[in-house]
Amino acid sequence: MKLTIIAATGGVGRHLVEQAVAEGHEVTAVARRPRDLPTGVRTVAVDFERPDPVALRAAVRGADAVVSGLGPRDPRADAGITSRGTQTIVDAMAAEGVRRIVVVSAAPVGPVPVPGQRVLPKHDPGDGFFMRYVGTRIARTLFGAHYADLAVTEQILRDSGLEWTVSRPPKLTDKALTGEYRTALNRNVRGGFSISRADVAHHMLRLVDQPETVRQIVGVAH
């Protein structure tokens, strides 16, 4: 399969590239500084602070799917980068006739409102008592602007007409790949507090070829 991987040198992106190459996929890796990537990987330089539409069109051209690990380097300082970058990616895909996209978001995003959009429930249906009343509040206090941007990002996908899927993990760790995790459709995983970046990447690559997850949100956690 031909995959274009966005933010290929980031925390999730580098695992996406490594695993996709190991699985035999033909990979185009998109990153601000696409160095230290495996040999045999096509690279395209894009700075998502100022995304280049022409470069992104070239990066997605001919792809079977786009897999995006895009997110801010500092969630408290780089708000807006994910939604702006995703809009440029969506536009590039539409221009090139590429339909399938899988992106990473975050577990606390579900009840975050987007101005002018539908009224959302106060809590994610998968969250237990602790996450509803303690964990999510702490997370939003620390990273509220980041989650608001991810909510806009998810709305961009809903409005895109593309075959999108969102992976929503909780706290990310640097533990090793296990390939073992729980998932839940359109809700967070009950009692799921963390997952490794390597396992998130594994999950996202599995989603690419799961048509039942098209235009769905999938919670994932250990």
Description:
The protein is α/β, with parallel strands linked by helices. It has five helices and ten strands; from the N terminus they run βαββαβαβαββββαβ. It has an eight-stranded mixed sheet with strand order 3-2-1-4-5-6-10-8, with helices on both faces. The protein has a two-stranded parallel sheet with strand order 7-9. β5, α4 (129-160) and β6 form a beta-alpha-beta unit. α2 crosses α3 (81-96). It is globular.
Provide a concise account of the structure shown.
The protein has 222 residues and is α/β, with parallel strands linked by helices.
How many strand elements? 10
Number of helices: 5
Overall pLDDT confidence:
89
User: In percent terms, what proportion of residues is strand?
Assistant: 15-25%
Q: What is the gyration radius calculated from CA atoms?
A: 16 Å
Characteristic key phrases:
alpha/beta, 35% helix, two-stranded parallel sheet, 222 residues
Itemize the secondary structure elements and their pairings.
Elements: E1 2-6, H1 13-22, E2 26-31, E3 42-45, H2 53-60, E4 65-68, H3 81-96, E5 100-104, H4 129-160, E6 163-168, E7 171-173, E8 182-185, E9 194-196, H5 197-208, E10 216-221
Parallel strand pairs: 1-2, 1-4, 2-3, 4-5, 5-6, 6-10, 7-9
Antiparallel strand pairs: 8-10
Helix pairs in contact: 1-5, 2-3, 3-4
